[in-house]
C-alpha cells in the first residue's frame, strides 16, 4: 500500500514535470510563430482609436484589403483615445508597437524623437506607397524634418458647433469674418432671451487658443517651445473666468457631470468649439439640431485655421515594411474604402476617395460644405508639427483651464503652472 | 497535502531506514512541495519581487520608457516634495483615509451588532449587506455612482427635498470626494463579517454577569463588547486604512479618468498612474510608489504601537 503511494507520487511528479515542459514548449512556439511567413503569408497589426461606428467601417475596409491582397492578413486592435495612447506608449517602449497605427499631429515629433516611426519616403520611391493626389496640401501634415512619418487619411479643421434652434430663437446669425466681440455679444443675446449659457467653455481648448494666437501673429507651439507668454495666457483665462461668472459660459460643474455627453448636446449651452468632424456625434447625443459656424476673428478676416488630420503611421522596426506601405496606400487611395469610411476621420484626404464618397446625410454634408467654405474663404494657414510633449501639455491645458473656471486657481497662478508643467513636458 | 503529512512508508521487513535515507526522503518531499509551489514562486519572483526591485532602482533614475534610465540620485524625491500636484494628491488621500475609514468601520460594527442577534432570515440579511463588497470594486459600480451623484440625479433631487440645493456632487470640487467616501462606506461588508466573527467569540457569561450587576446595554457594549472585540477592531482598522491609502479605481472612474474636477479626486495612486502611464515619467512614478510604501509602513507601525494602549488580548485580561 505504502509502495503504491510512493509510485503514485512519482508518477504525479513526472506528469507535472512533463506538463511544465509542454507549457514551456508551447510558450516558445507561440513566440516564434507570431509572424511566421514560411508560406508567404504576412500578418500586420493595425491599431486605431475611435468609437464603434469607426470600428465597424474599419473592419469592412480591412476585409476589402485582405480580399485584394490575400497574402496579407490584418489583425485589428482598437480602443478609445485615452487608452490607445497609454497602451501604445507601453507597447512602443517594449519594442512591440503595432505595425501600422492611427496617429495625430500632437504625437509625431514625440515618437519620431524616440525612433518609433518609419520614414515612408523610401517605400514611396520603391513604388509600394502612392503619395500623390492629396488635397489642399495635407500631405505636409505628416512631414517632420524632411521625413514622411505620417500619411493623412482625412482633413479637419476647428469649427463652432451651434444649437441651430437656440441660435434661431435668439435671432443670432453667425457669419464668416465675425469678430470675437460679435461672438460674445451673441452669447449675451442668447443668455438674455433664452436664459441659457452661450458657450460650453472655450478657454480650456488648446486648439482654439492656438487659433486665437495665430490671429494675433503668434501660435501655441513653436518647433520646440510655447509660442506665447504667461501674460497672454493670464489675459485669456481671466476673460474666460469673467464670462463663467456672468453666465455667458456654462457652469463648469454642470459640464463636468454631463460627461461623457458634451455640454452642447446636454442642452447646457448653445455652442461649442471643436473639430468639425466631431460634430457628427452631437446629432446622436442631443435633442436639438446642430450646425457648423465659422470661427470668430480678431480682424474680421483671419480665422487662424489650418487643416489638421488623422494619419496612418508605421513602426520603424516592422518586419514587413513593403506590406505596411501597400496597406497604407490602399487605405488612403482606394475609392471603395473612401465610401466606407466617409468623413468619420475628417474630409477624405485624397482626390480618389473624396470623389468616390458623396455624402447623403445632413451631418456629413454639413461638414463637407463647411470645409469647402473655409477653403474658399482662403483663410487656411499652415500647420506646424507640435514639439515632443505636446500631448501632455494639451491635457494640462484642459485640466488647468478647468481649475480656473471652477474658481480654484487664479488665472495668473494657473498660467504660471502651465508654463512650469510645459517645461517638464518638453524635457521628458 | 497528504503527501507531506505522511512519512514515506517502507516495505515491511527491511531494516529501519538510516538517518541519511530519511533525510533524502524528506528532501525529496520538500522538492515535491517546491515543485508544486513553483508556479506561485515563479509568479512571485517574476511579477512581484522583480518589478519591485526594478522600481526601487527606477525611483533614483529619470526614465521615460524609451531611453535607458539615467541615474539622478534623489532628484525625483526632491522634485516630488516640491510638486504642488503631489502635495494636493497627498492632501486628497489623507482626507479620504481620515473620513472614509472610521465611517466605514462604524457602519460595519453597527450592522454587525444588529446582525449578531438571533433572528429569522439572518442569513439573508448577512448576504444582502455583504453583497456590495463583492461588486463594489467593479468599474460598472463607478459608473452607477457617477449617475447617482450627478446634477439633477437621485441624490441631488433628494437633497432638494430637504432644502439643500448644492447641485450634483460629481462636478463640484468641494463635494466630489464625499461621493468617493460614500462608495467606500457602502462596501462595509468585509469588515462587517470580521466583526461578526469577533462578536461570536465574546463569552455570553460576561453579559449575564453584567446584567445581574445591573449594567444597561450601553454599559455592556462599552465595558464588555468593545474590549473583547478590540483585537478584531484593530485588525479591521489596520486593513481598512491600508486599503484606503491605495484607493484608485473609484476615483479614476467617477472622475472620467481625469481625477478631477480641478484635481479634487486626485488621490495618490491616480497621480502616480498619470505620471507613469500618461506622462511616461516612470522614475518619478516609482519614487511616488516607494514613498507610499514607506508612508503606509509608518502608519502601520504607529497603529501597532498604539495597540498596547487599547487592544485587549485575552491573556492580558486574565
TrEMBL record, chain A:
Gene3D superfamilies: Periplasmic binding protein-like II. It holds the Pfam family SBP_bac_1. This is ABC transporter substrate-binding protein. The lineage of its organism: Bacteria, Bacillati, Actinomycetota, Actinomycetes, Kitasatosporales. It comes from Streptomyces lincolnensis.
Automatic annotation (TrEMBL), chain B:
GO terms for cellular component: plasma membrane. Its main location: membrane. It is found in: Cell membrane. The chain crosses the membrane at residues 31-60, 96-116, 128-148, 175-199, 282-305. This is ABC transporter permease protein. It is a multi-pass membrane protein. The keyword Cell membrane applies. Keywords: Cell membrane, Membrane, Transmembrane, Transmembrane helix, Transport. It comes from Streptomyces lincolnensis. Residues 1-24 are annotated as: Disordered. PANTHER family: ABC TRANSPORTER PERMEASE PROTEIN, ABC TRANSPORTER PERMEASE PROTEIN YESP-RELATED. It comes from the Bacteria. Gene3D superfamilies: MetI-like. InterPro entries: ABC_transporter_permease, MetI-like, MetI-like_sf. One of its GO terms (biological process) is transmembrane transport. Residues 9-22 have a biased composition (Low complexity). The keyword Membrane applies. Belongs to the binding-protein-dependent transport system permease family. Pfam families: BPD_transp_1. SUPFAM superfamilies: MetI-like (SSF161098).
Amino acid at each position: 500500500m505504502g509502495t503504491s503511494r510512493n509510485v503514485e507520487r512519482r508518477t504525479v511528479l513526472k506528469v507535472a514535470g512533463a506538463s511544465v515542459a509542454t507549457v514551456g514548449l508551447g510558450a516558445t512556439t507561440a513566440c516564434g510563430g507570431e509572424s511566421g511567413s514560411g508560406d508567404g503569408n504576412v500578418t500586420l497589426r493595425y491599431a486605431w482609436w475611435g468609437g464603434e461606428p469607426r470600428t465597424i467601417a474599419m473592419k469592412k475596409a480591412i476585409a476589402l484589403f485582405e480580399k485584394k491582397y490575400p497574402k496579407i492578413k490584418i489583425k485589428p486592435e482598437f480602443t478609445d483615445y485615452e487608452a490607445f495612447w497609454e497602451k501604445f506608449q507601453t507597447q512602443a517602449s517594449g519594442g512591440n508597437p503595432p505595425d501600422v497605427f492611427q496617429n495625430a499631429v500632437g504625437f509625431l515629433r514625440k515618437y519620431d524623437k524616440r525612433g518609433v516611426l518609419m520614414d515612408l519616403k523610401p517605400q514611396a520611391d520603391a513604388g509600394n506607397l502612392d503619395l500623390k493626389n492629396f488635397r489642399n496640401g495635407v500631405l505636409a501634415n505628416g512631414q517632420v524634418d524632411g521625413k514622411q512619418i505620417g500619411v493623412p487619411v482625412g482633413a479637419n479643421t476647428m469649427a463652432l458647433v451651434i444649437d441651430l434652434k437656440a441660435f434661431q430663437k435668439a435671432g443670432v446669425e453667425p457669419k464668416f469674418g465675425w469678430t470675437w466681440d460679435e461672438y460674445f455679444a451673441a452669447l449675451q443675446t442668447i443668455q438674455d432671451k433664452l436664459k441659457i449659457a452661450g458657450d460650453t467653455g472655450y478657454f480650456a481648448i488648446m486648439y482654439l487658443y492656438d487659433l486665437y494666437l495665430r490671429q494675433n501673429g503668434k501660435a501655441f507651439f513653436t518647433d520646440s517651445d510655447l509660442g506665447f507668454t504667461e501674460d497672454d495666457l493670464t489675459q485669456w483665462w481671466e476673460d474666460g473666468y469673467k464670462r463663467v461668472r456672468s453666465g455667458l459660459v456654462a457652469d463648469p460643474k454642470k459640464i463636468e457631470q454631463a460627461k461623457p455627453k458634451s455640454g452642447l448636446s446636454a442642452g447646457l449651452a448653445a455652442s461649442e468649439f471643436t473639430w468639425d468632424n466631431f460634430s457628427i456625434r452631437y446629432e446622436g447625443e442631443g435633442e436639438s439640431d446642430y450646425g457648423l459656424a465659422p470661427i470668430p476673428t480678431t480682424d474680421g478676416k483671419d480665422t487662424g485655421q489650418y487643416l489638421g488630420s488623422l494619419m496612418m503611421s508605421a513602426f520603424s522596426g516592422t518586419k514587413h515594411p513593403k506590406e505596411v506601405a501597400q496597406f497604407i496606400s490602399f487605405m488612403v487611395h482606394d475609392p471603395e474604402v473612401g465610401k466606407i469610411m466617409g468623413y468619420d476621420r475628417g474630409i477624405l484626404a485624397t482626390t480618389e476617395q473624396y470623389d468616390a464618397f458623396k455624402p447623403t446625410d445632413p451631418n456629413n454634408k454639413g461638414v463637407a460644405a463647411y470645409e469647402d467654405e473655409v477653403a474658399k474663404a482662403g483663410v487656411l494657414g499652415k500647420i506646424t508639427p507640435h514639439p515632443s510633449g505636446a500631448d501632455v501639455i494639451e491635457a494640462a491645458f484642459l485640466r488647468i483651464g478647468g481649475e480656473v473656471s471652477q474658481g480654484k486657481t487664479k488665472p495668473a497662478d494657473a498660467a504660471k503652472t502651465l508654463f512650469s508643467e510645459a517645461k517638464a513636458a518638453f524635457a521628458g | 497535502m497528504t503527501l507531506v503529512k505522511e512519512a514515506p512508508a517502507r516495505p515491511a521487513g527491511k531494516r529501519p531506514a538510516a538517518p541519511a535515507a530519511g533525510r533524502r526522503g524528506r528532501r525529496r518531499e520538500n522538492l515535491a512541495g517546491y515543485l508544486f509551489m513553483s508556479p506561485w514562486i515563479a509568479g512571485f519572483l517574476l511579477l512581484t519581487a522583480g518589478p519591485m526591485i526594478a522600481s526601487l532602482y527606477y525611483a533614483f533614475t529619470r526614465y521615460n520608457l524609451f531611453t535607458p534610465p539615467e541615474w539622478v540620485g534623489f532628484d525625483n524625491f526632491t522634485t516630488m516634495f516640491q510638486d504642488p500636484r503631489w502635495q494636493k494628491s497627498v492632501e486628497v488621500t489623507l482626507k479620504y483615509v481620515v473620513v472614509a475609514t472610521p465611517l466605514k468601520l462604524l457602519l460595519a460594527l453597527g450592522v454587525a451588532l444588529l446582525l449578531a442577534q438571533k433572528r429569522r432570515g439572518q442569513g439573508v440579511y448577512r448576504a444582502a449587506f455583504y453583497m456590495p463588497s463583492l461588486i463594489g470594486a467593479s468599474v460598472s459600480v463607478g459608473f452607477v455612482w457617477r449617475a447617482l451623484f450627478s446634477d439633477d440625479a437621485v441624490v441631488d433631487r433628494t437633497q432638494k427635498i430637504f432644502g439643500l440645493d448644492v447641485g450634483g456632487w460629481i462636478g463640484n470640487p468641494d463635494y466630489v470626494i464625499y461621493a468617493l467616501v460614500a462608495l467606500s462606506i457602502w462596501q462595509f461588508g468585509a469588515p462587517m463579517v470580521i466583526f461578526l466573527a469577533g462578536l461570536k467569540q465574546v463569552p455570553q457569561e460576561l453579559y449575564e454577569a453584567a446584567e445581574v450587576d445591573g449594567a444597561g446595554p450601553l454599559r455592556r457594549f462599552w465595558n464588555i463588547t468593545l474590549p473583547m472585540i478590540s483585537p478584531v477592531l484593530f485588525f479591521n482598522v489596520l486593513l481598512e486604512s491600508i486599503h484606503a491609502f491605495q484607493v484608485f479605481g473609484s476615483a479614476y472612474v467617477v472622475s472620467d479618468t481625469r481625477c478631477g474636477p480641478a484635481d479634487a479626486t486626485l488621490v495618490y495612486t491616480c497621480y502616480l498612474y498619470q505620471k507613469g502611464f500618461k506622462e511616461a515619467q516612470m522614475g518619478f512614478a516609482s519614487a511616488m510608489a516607494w514613498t507610499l510604501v514607506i508612508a503606509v509602513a509608518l502608519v502601520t507601525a504607529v497603529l501597532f504601537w498604539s495597540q498596547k494602549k487599547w487592544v485587549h488580548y485575552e491573556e492580558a485580561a486574565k
